[in-house]
Amino acid sequence: xxxxxxxxxxxxxxxxxxxxxxxxxxxxxxxxxxxxxxxxxxxxxxxxxxxxxxxxxxxxxxxxxxxxxxxxxxxxxxxxxxxxxxxxxxxxxxxxxxxxxxxxxxxxxxxxxxxxxxxxxxxxxxxxxxxxxxxxxxxxxxxxxxxxxxxxxxxxxxxxxxxxxxxxxxxxxxxxxxxxxxxxxxxxxxxxxxxxxxxxxxxxxxxxxxxxxxxxxxxxxxxxxxxxxxxxxxxxxxxxxxxxxxxxxx
Length: 250
Ligand code: APR
What we know:
Blueprint: H1 5-13, E1 16-21, H2 24-27, H3 40-43, H4 46-49, H5 52-57, H6 59-74, H7 80-91, E2 94-99, H8 105-108, E3 114-116, E4 119-126, E5 132-133, E6 154-158, H9 167-179, E7 182-186, H10 198-204, E8 208-213, E9 225-228, H11 231-241
Parallel strand pairs: 1-2, 1-7, 2-3, 7-8, 8-9
Antiparallel strand pairs: 4-5, 4-6
Adenosine-5-diphosphoribose binds next to helix 2, strand 8 and helix 11.
């Protein structure tokens, strides 16, 4: 797999780059995707686990599932794809990383400017008084945790189906997509809206849009390029292919 000269040229001249990631970038770390072969939604029913109604109906079941996912995520490490994006951030003047992932692996890889459109599984808060709960010991979890302040139900700080995305993160994503020279869509099936609308904003503003995925996605019909491969292999090659800027030069 080669990285095209046009992508290397555009990326090395880019003043502004925006990247949107999905579950695929964490697949090589051992985090299951949602709609892939062994995807979560093949084994679990989202309507029973990933909506506010499902949570109110059976908070213990929902927490059992989030405890399982949090343990899985704690036991894995970022992969070369995550690290390559953290390095790219250092090499581009205006870099924005927008993720649909709740797994915190971008930050663990050292990425700084990360906007989480679907929340973060490491955080939790009370649905009554809104208090954020610092550290939740889930390994001894017998039932859905309760707020020490008001006794209300604690929920994971993730965006469930039918819920609004965090306004600030979405606004940052829209503005970054509207000003970027190059837009990378990495490891996402690009079917879940409104996150999937972000790459089209970049297209509308004339950015060079590239899909990185082992499979073509809906976005591939509109993007300038689709690089068929794994993020953990393609992204390090992409960063490697970029000419090093002279020390002190931005
Ligand atoms: N590298 C790059 N892409 C990969 C890799 C890999 N190693 N392995 C799989 N993929 C691709 C798959 O081909 C697929 O297109 O990653 C994509 C994962 O798609 P989904 O499972 O649909 O995940 P995502 O796009 O992140 O889902 C969006 O849906 O369920 C909700 O809130 C959840 O954030 C999630 C949202």
